[in-house]
Each structure stands twice: as structure tokens, then as C-alpha cells.
Specification:
The protein has a single domain, classed as Glycosyl hydrolase domain, family 43 (Tachylectin-2, Chain A), CATH 2.115.10. Helices cover 7% and strands 41% of the residues. The protein is built from 2 helices and 22 strands. Strands 6, 7, 8, 9 and 10 form a 5-stranded antiparallel β-sheet that branches. Strands 15, 16, 17, 18 and 19 form a 5-stranded antiparallel β-sheet that branches. Strands 1-22-21-20 form a 4-stranded antiparallel β-sheet, with no helix packed on it.
């Protein structure tokens, strides 16, 4: 083979490597295996709406419901971001704790991110997800101006020097526009090597509010974001526990593997939702744990849905922070709001590997 041919092949190979949007797989090792973990219910509810007995629903910015957006640990403090609704559309708030299970204190300057009239996000801001990058904090979030459908129209970015803000929105917002009829529920964004990954579900794709999980990638948080046309995690088959699709959920890149803890619903109008687990080497090809769900809804009294699941991995424990919906109206709550009473709850997965089991046996 001549020198010119070899040089061409080398240059062509380098160009192909530079064009890759998905890094090569490294590992494909699940965190959860048969017999190595158990589900332990945490505080349910862990955070509630400010006045559950209110009939007007207008006394506070988050009077009517609160829904889980993101769980984030930084410098000894746990941050739980959530979007809440009162007399206006969703806005974003935060609560903090020194312990993964609480008690949680709502930030006294909530909401930390508000909708703005006359803009692409005039109706609501929601689905916050926070990333720490080079000493500053980036909040990704959904925005909407559609008061009728409530459909998210795009992805926004805000920046801060502290997890609680103050947050400054980017002048280039929205950094990604969602196709009509394919609004996203943002679940997670992360950087793996040189690529940014975004995992989101399309709502109303199967049953109201639920759909398959999709992936978009970019070389910077501001984009441009390239959306894969086909979903990377499919809802279950007809009759399975997650046949109705997923609410938003977080994905982690941990120990060389992508890990997803997701809320999946049955294909029914009631949207009974438990938590499942899946893993992937590349973020595109996923394997669902074959004995899902790993956190069945039946394990918590009066719970009907673990939705919008976000997580913090502190091996051997995994903390799952989610929206909590109920089978029946909890005591002290205004019955007029049932069944759409929503608080925040926590589930725990405890992994028990061989070494721990030996230690406990002593």
C-alpha cells in the first residue's frame, strides 16, 4: 500500500472520529441485578403544597400542586427543584436539606425562575434540570406560551453562581424549539466526554402526559441540538406495567454506564405509575431490568403514582425523588382537588453486594 493511500486512510479516519456525535461504548454494567437490592420507601410525602386545605388554590404560587423537577447535591447540601402551580401557570422553586431524606426547607425567595409575559415562556416555566460546569451552574428548563394546550414550546437556559440563584436567562433562549405536537418533558442533560446528552419524553404520545424517551445531542449547552428521530427507550408492550409510557425521568452516567430510573404507567386513564430501571453503554441502546418495576407503587400506602422521577446515586443507596399522587384524598386536604393532588415523595433503593452481605453476617 502506497504512502499516499495510507495518509488518506489516516486522515479519513480522523475526520470520521471528529464527526461522531455518540462516543464509543465503554461499559455496560447494570447497578441492579436479581437479588442484590431492595426497595425501601422513604418519606411520603416529603414536601407538600403550602396549604392543602385551601379551596381557592390561589394563596401561594404553588398552592394547587407541586411536581418534581430535579435533585442535585452540591457542597454538603441537597437541592430539590420543583415546579408548582397556583393561580398562574407553573413556575420553578427549590427546597434544601443537609440530609438526602430531609427534612426539607423551601427557599424563602421562591419561585427562583418565573415566566415572563410577552415572551416565548409567558405561560409557564417548568422541568428544571441543573448542571454544574466549571464553577457555575446551568439550569435547563421548558417554557410555554400556549395557555390552551399547555405544550412546552422550547428549551431555555439560565445561569447562576449558586444553586439557588439569582438566575440569569440566556439572551439566545429558546436554545431549542420543539416541533409542533411534539413538546418535551425535559428529564436530564449531562456531558459525557465532549458530547452533551439530553433525555426527554414526548407527552400525550400514548396516554395523556406520557410517551417514549428520546435523545438529543450537542457540542455545547447552547446547541445546536440534534434530535434523534426514533425513541431510545420504548414504552412496554400492550398489557405491561409501562405500556402507557413514561413521565420525565433522570438519566445518570455512572461508572462508565448510563442508568435510567423512570416512572412508567399502565395504559389506562388513571395512570398508575411505578418506577423501573434500565441501563445502556452508549445512551442509545438500552436494556430494561427484566423484573421491573423495581419500586412498585403497591409498596407505599395510598400512593397511586411515582411520576417525574429524579435521582441521586450514593452507592450503595440510590435516592429517587418524584411527584407523588394518591389513591384517595389525604386527611386535611381539600377534596375538590382530588385526584390531581400532587406532593413530592422519596423512594430508596439499597444495593447489597457480596462484601456488604459478608459484613452484615458477622
Amino acid at each position: 500500500m502506497g504512502k499516499i493511500t495510507i495518509l488518506f486512510l489516516v486522515l479519513f479516519g480522523c475526520l470520521c472520529l471528529n464527526c461522531r456525535t455518540i462516543p464509543e461504548p465503554t461499559k455496560n454494567e447494570p447497578l441492579l441485578k436479581v437479588g442484590n437490592f431492595k426497595h425501601v420507601p422513604g418519606p411520603n410525602p416529603a414536601i407538600t403544597v403550602p396549604d392543602p386545605s385551601s379551596k381557592s388554590g390561589d394563596r401561594f404560587w404553588d398552592s394547587r400542586c407541586i411536581e418534581s423537577s430535579d435533585a442535585f447535591y452540591d457542597n454538603g447540601t441537597y437541592y430539590w427543584y420543583y415546579h408548582g402551580s397556583g393561580s398562574k401557570g407553573y413556575q420553578i422553586g427549590a427546597a434544601t436539606s443537609r440530609n438526602a431524606l430531609g427534612p426539607w426547607e423551601k427557599y424563602n425567595k421562591n419561585p427562583i425562575l418565573k415566566s415572563e409575559s410577552g415572551t416565548w415562556e409567558s405561560y409557564y416555566v417548568a422541568c428544571a434540570f441543573v448542571v454544574k460546569q466549571k464553577g457555575r451552574y446551568i439550569m435547563f428548563y421548558n417554557g410555554s406560551k400556549d395557555t390552551k394546550k399547555g405544550e412546552a414550546v422550547g428549551l431555555g437556559i439560565a445561569y447562576a453562581d449558586h444553586p439557588l440563584g439569582p438566575w440569569t436567562k440566556s439572551d439566545t433562549n429558546p436554545v431549542m424549539k420543539y416541533p409542533p405536537g411534539k413538546g418535551h418533558y425535559l428529564g436530564a442533560i449531562m456531558k459525557v466526554r465532549d458530547i452533551w446528552y439530553m433525555f426527554a419524553t414526548y407527552f400525550d404520545q400514548i396516554v395523556p402526559d406520557y410517551g417514549h424517551c428520546y435523545l438529543a445531542t450537542a457540542k455545547s449547552p447552547e446547541g445546536p441540538w440534534r434530535r434523534r428521530k426514533k425513541p431510545v427507550i420504548l414504552a412496554g408492550n400492550e398489557g405491561e406495567w409501562d405500556a402507557g409510557g413514561f413521565s420525565e425521568f433522570e438519566v445518570h452516567y455512572y461508572n462508565g454506564t448510563f442508568h435510567a430510573f423512570y416512572g412508567g404507567t399502565k395504559k389506562n386513564e388513571e395512570r398508575e405509575e411505578s418506577i423501573g430501571y434500565a441501563w445502556s453503554a452508549d445512551g442509545v441502546h438500552w436494556t430494561k431490568y427484566h423484573e421491573n418495576p423495581v419500586c412498585p407503587i403497591r409498596n407505599v400506602d395510598n400512593a397511586f403514582s411515582f411520576a417525574e422521577v429524579h435521582s441521586i446515586i450514593e452507592y450503595p443507596r440510590i435516592y429517587l425523588y418524584h411527584t407523588l399522587r394518591y389513591k384517595s384524598t389525604p386527611q386535611g386536604y381539600n377534596e375538590e382537588w382530588f385526584p390531581w393532588i400532587e406532593d413530592l415523595g422519596i423512594q430508596i433503593i439499597e444495593i447489597d453486594d457480596g462484601n456488604e452481605m459478608k459484613e452484615r453476617a458477622k
